[in-house]
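Reopening: structure tokens for the calcium ion complex, inputs below.
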Amino acid sequence: MKKILVLEDETNIRSFVVINLKRAGYDTIEAGTGEEALLQLKNNPDIKVALLDIMLPDMDGFEVCRRIRASNSKIGVIMLTARTQEMDKVTGLMTGADDYVTKPFSPAELTARVDALCRRIGDDSTPETVSFQQPPFVLNTRNRTLEKNGQRIKLTQVEYSIMKLFMENPGKALSREEILDTVWGRDYFGEVKIVDVNIRRLRVKVEDDPQNPIYITTVWGFGYKWDT
Ligand code: CA
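Re-run output (same inputs, fresh job):
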């Protein structure tokens, strides 16, 4: 089981994160201060990903990140940021971190980010969970199937790839170009319109009312977003 360090001084947020990571098949190590986190990392060299809160009693999360990076370039780091106005600071100081999640975040969003980072880090011990559960949907990445309310939805390979991209990035606006690059590949020479065509078809399959989509929403002039 992959070990995740959760550094967060607010115990209710920490338990929320820990419960959801455990549910997703991860092992968790908890810390409430920066010093504690650094000590835990020393004692648990097999930690794969560290989730770092920014506002902490002894030092800020960026300092923790810097100290981790001073000796460890392999571990994945996700910052837990509190407010959107911190974003300038976050992006400026993000150099050592791999990703960030803005509070309040949904369990699905958090575990999707951790899953994605674990995959990017690349590891032989793949997590037990091979499915994305975002009610009413379950995407199984082992047999490449999608279920809605327990009912299998038949998808083409391209539709499946789009769904996987969506479910890995819940709540994130994805540009049509990004979807095209990820699903069709960078060397695809067709038009970006192909994305719209497939989205229209996907909506017929996954939405309750394809005319009024609530899961695959349009981000005008940009692309699409997966809302669950
Ligand atoms: Ca805090």
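Residues 9-10, 53, 55-56 surround calcium ion (CB under 6 Å). The mean pLDDT is 87. Marking as resolved unless the reporter disagrees.
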